[in-house]
Amino acid sequence: MKRAGTLRQVSDFSDFSRGHWLQELLCRGEEPSHVQSSPDGQHLLVLQKSRPPPLPRVVAFQRHGIGGADLERNWQPPQPALVGLLFLQNPVTLGAWVLAVVWEHGHTEVWHFVVAVGWQLLQTVELCQGARARIVSVCSLGASLVWCEERPPLDTHSDMSKCAFRFCVCTRALEVGEQGVHLGTLRIVLHNSPEYQVLASPQHVFLVPATASFATTSKFLLIWHPEKAKLTITAPSAGFVHSKVLRSSSESDFRKLLLGSVGLLSGLAPLDIHTSAVSNSGGLLLVSTKGAVNMMEPDGTQRHIFDLEGGPLAQGRPVQLKTFGSILACVLAGVLYLVNQNNGRLIEKKILSMKEVHFLESLGEEDSIQLLTQTGIYSFSFSKPEDSSRPEPCLVEMVFEEACRYYQRRSLSSSKLTVEKLKKGGVFQAPVALAAILQHSLHQKPARGLQDTYVKLLSTMSLELQSYMSLELLKTCVVCAPESEVESYCEELVEQEVSRVLRSDMDKDNLAYLNSVFASFPKAAWKATRSCLQLQQNGDGLLVARATPEVWKKVLGGPQQEEVGQNGVVPLFELICASFLRFKPKWLPGFVELTQQYVSISWSYSSKEGPEGRVPLYKRALGVLARKNKHGEADDEMELELLLCSKRPKAVLQALHLLIRLKQWQRVVEVAEKFSKLSPLLNKEIFTTLLAEFAQHRELDPYLDTLWLLCPAELTTSDILAVVLQHLPDSQEDPAPFSSEGNQLTVGLLKPLLQRVVQRPCIQDEMYSDALQSPTFPPPTPPREHKVPSKAAADDAPEPPMARTSSPSTLAQDDTA
């Protein structure tokens, strides 16, 4: 249920020290470049970078009549400018804080506020070690400062490409104690890097490229994890790319960090970032020039939240972003958008009467948003729903949102379908029915409150709903479980997730999700795969699977590599093959053979719709094997097994050549003897290949008796001699008649084969041999019965038109008469 929001004024600046000055400054149109409130909400810092008059300055305004000295600092260009106003935690006093005013050349002033005394300068420190260093971006992480500084080269005529990598990212602890301010040791996080804007979340630091001058470096973001001393490379167009632990300062080099990912990064799309900000949940909010708002999580994954209205955003068009609990507030061109971060649903859209607004901290009130305007400070708060004390479950809202996307893709109308239209229209009954069923199930209401048709549907869906509820319960157990039990819970959760995805449509989104699951939980995903496919060995040691045809179709018939693109996502068959290689490599050939058996049953051999109509399965498995970082003898054996398990003629011949290259002659003969029985054509190719090897060396001599048995029936002695002569090794000089080397081909070695071929009956003779040797050929002439006709009958009988052929004795009697 949508919550209604109300906007009310909470301050007209009368409760601020020098509030009239702040109001006059805002009303004159001198909009501040940066507004920031202190952690306790009692101080308002305004940074104004406009050119003189007046001078650039930073002013602190106290709230609720707090007395004491004011804080105001200004500077005269071309003096170093102010680059950051940062509130840091004071570890000595719980809840206390200090203000760090950081200037461009590294000069930092540390201030604190004392009640009834006012602002006091504690100490001045220098962040940078070099006199020529210049800070371009700075942020605070706990009690530490993190900044990106420029270190210009000493040679002014240096190459421009080298000058672009003249920045480094540094960090230093700034501790405030009773003895004053102590500055910790300088630590370099990344050096020889391009310019970055640093943005800190509670536990991570995001590094966003500041310029797009170099194509490769403007395609990805970096995330620094201080506790793990790790840098993560991620890109909005590809997700997580690479992660590296920085064990030494040499590994902090920017170019070495990218060394293993240059090929992948070069194929990515350039970054499209208009505005960026850190959310209170620790993610990075990114607004593209098209108005799309996305959330980049600290693990490198990204999800879409919302699309702003108004078309493409110009570079100078400001977008204000701020998160309050689960609510994302965006201000664009005087319009306030309030969006639910969890599901991307627009809660409210409100047109403001003022163009320039700034978000302030809301002092722990998650349902209240404070805005600074020219006329005062306003609070936007939410009221509870009128018709229900409980909002609709997130899952019910997701049903309508997914239905909107589904029907919108299939609609011929240009009008946009919304959740409200879907609920009120009454045209689409499927999402309404499903939402009603879910509400009853999630709230555990009795089924008698549903319509009859819904009750029938509820009984059909009961198992699915139970599975969903158990999955949600398991997620809760994972969050609340101790460390010793987390692994077992995660394995069960991954198994349920993999099983759920295999039961749904295997589209690109589900495939990308499975890729992330296999990457994050490889062992649990492997166990889930074995369970879903029901893989096990029988008594003979052969791999068997009892998966349903629907599961096999998901494994083999999902999006292929050409459909998912080059963003690191691989098809499900390749994912499973990679798991076999990692956890049970001996089972991989058997798995490929099982998949081929299923393919032969489900698709015709030449069908282009089936997986074999694109790239053969054994080649896809070989592609997974080729992507391994290290290649050893076990991989050669695996390649042989994959080639042979396919039983394809080309693959068998390729395996035979690989065995010949490895000089495994015993296995060469065994493979030849086994696979020659598959087809006469393959038999001829195998025998010709081995005959050519026999002509070149003497390694096959111990196996000649077996080899000659493989000789095809259609080969003649001329064919055999032609193959032998064609593959004889080239000799540098004419050999002696009786050579003692013993490695040359002699007629004696070839004689048994030639005799066998010569003595073998001709093929045409064999065709008729059965008939010629039959005892009933030709069949005996049946006996004839000779009847003597009477004389009267002979006289009356007509003369035959043709005289019958008579025997010689009869003709002789006639001549005598």
UniProtKB/TrEMBL annotation:
<dbReference type="Pfam" id="PF20468">
    <property type="entry name" value="HPS6_C"/>
</dbReference>
<dbReference type="GO" id="GO:0005765">
    <property type="term" value="C:lysosomal membrane"/>
</dbReference>
<dbReference type="InterPro" id="IPR046823">
    <property type="entry name" value="HPS6_N"/>
</dbReference>
<dbReference type="InterPro" id="IPR046822">
    <property type="entry name" value="HPS6_C"/>
</dbReference>
<feature type="domain" description="BLOC-2 complex member HPS6 C-terminal">
    <location>
        <begin position="397"/>
        <end position="784"/>
    </location>
</feature>
<feature type="compositionally biased region" description="Polar residues">
    <location>
        <begin position="804"/>
        <end position="817"/>
    </location>
</feature>
<dbReference type="GO" id="GO:0032418">
    <property type="term" value="P:lysosome localization"/>
</dbReference>
<dbReference type="InterPro" id="IPR017218">
    <property type="entry name" value="BLOC-2_complex_Hps6_subunit"/>
</dbReference>
<feature type="domain" description="BLOC-2 complex member HPS6 N-terminal">
    <location>
        <begin position="1"/>
        <end position="379"/>
    </location>
</feature>
<protein>
    <submittedName>
        <fullName>HPS6 biogenesis of lysosomal organelles complex 2 subunit 3</fullName>
    </submittedName>
</protein>
<dbReference type="Pfam" id="PF15702">
    <property type="entry name" value="HPS6"/>
</dbReference>
<feature type="region of interest" description="Disordered">
    <location>
        <begin position="770"/>
        <end position="817"/>
    </location>
</feature>
<dbReference type="GO" id="GO:0072657">
    <property type="term" value="P:protein localization to membrane"/>
</dbReference>
<dbReference type="GO" id="GO:0031084">
    <property type="term" value="C:BLOC-2 complex"/>
</dbReference>
